[in-house]
Design brief:
Oligomer: single chain
Radius of gyration: 30 Å
Number of domains: 3
Strand content: under 5%
Mean pLDDT: 96
CATH class of the largest domain: Mainly Alpha
Distance between the termini: 47 Å
Helix content: 55-70%
Number of helices: 19
CATH architecture of the largest domain: Up-down Bundle
Largest sheet: 2 strands, antiparallel
Structural class: mainly alpha
Number of strands: 6
Low-confidence stretches: none
Length: 468
Amino acid sequence: MKLWGGRFEKPVNEIAEEFGASIPFDRRLYREDIAGSKAHARMLAKQGIISNEDAEKIVAGLERIQARIEKGEFEFRLDREDIHLNIEAELAADIGEAAGRLHTGRSRNDQVALDFRLYVCRTIGQAVERILRLQETLVRLAEKWEGVIMPGYTHLQRAQPVLLSHHLLAYFEMFQRDAGRFSDSYARTDVSPLGSGALAGVPYPLDREYVAEQLGMSAVSRNSMDSVSDRDFVVEYMAAAALCAVHLSRFAEEIILWSTGEFGFIELDDSYSTGSSIMPQKKNPDMAELVRGKTGRVIGHLTAILVTLKGLPLSYNKDMQEDKEGFFDASDTLLTSLTVFEGMIATMRIKAENMAKGAEGSFATATDLADYLVGKGLPFRQAHEVVGKLVRYAIEQGKTFSGLSLAEFKQFSSLFEEAALKITPETSMAARNTYGGTAPGQVKNAIAASKTLLEDTRQWLSGIGVPV
């Protein structure tokens, strides 16, 4: 008989029971469910609602159940619907009547909200820790390849020379914002809803703050109806995860391009590449392509939870059971993608000569020549036109700027002098010495600043109990 079966005469239809059961996926919440139940039992005893003896039996029984689960000796039963009823039924079989007192002052509605919040808090910590590892690798590579010059792009056309380190640190900044979004959402997730009951609160003198303290949570929820129906914390995680996955995907796209023969900027390590079943020469960037492809799953799960929630009246509705499968898949996908991506870039080989040739042979210093003419008194728009004509001439002659003589320069403006011939990718970058620019000194400062940000993240992770 179901634990809630007193109201019913007929059993649940077999197909309906399978359709409504969540135990195939919410079994992942067993640690959180047991932790919440232990804290609740201790609080009930503290408040004199149940005896200390019963509380001790409940806690000991729950610990035995957790041990069985972790040894693979626990049978999760579909007819018990979810993780809560599976554990409660086994507890009753283990300790008898005392188990029936555990659910005093509690509903599955506030119970699952607590479990899921605890789980999401843990997953936030894991996500930030993986982002930290990726950022550490980016900083390490930025230091290693500090002097490597490459073309920077707009519209996927070579635009201006930049340091490879500057390019890598652009992704550091993206991931820094991702870590910030996750850590910011943690405070709103780290709130205990237990004690809200089904929706209206409970008629027992519960100490909700004591339960939160036992679980290491920083606050308790303020409105019982909101507590059991709120899944904003899931949406916030999913939104942060989707954007982080988008950043990984953008980086993956560049890795894929850079590894082609047409770019030839990098070579991926064999351990992060695959071959072709028919073409022996192929070395495919499959890991980068999978990271790019799996981003769609994470974005899809964000869309799904938003659509699920958009029409729900207060308070709890069974639709909300759909919050977990997408979350589990999205978080698993993101964590694996971050791990694989970090290993992939840590082991890739940089072809610095090809990068430098790309920066030098693509008229990437054209803006610097225009700025040179501006320094001679020519308005920028006129300087822009002069250099544009110079570029067209060089293309027609099959030359680069370095292959043109001063006489050829002067065909387009008498303001050109010998100094114009000395404009190179190196001087171009050195001139961009504004804060946040690609000048070597600015990049060195950015690396140092990035290390400070990483230390801040380590301290935050340590504060929530994540070892780093």
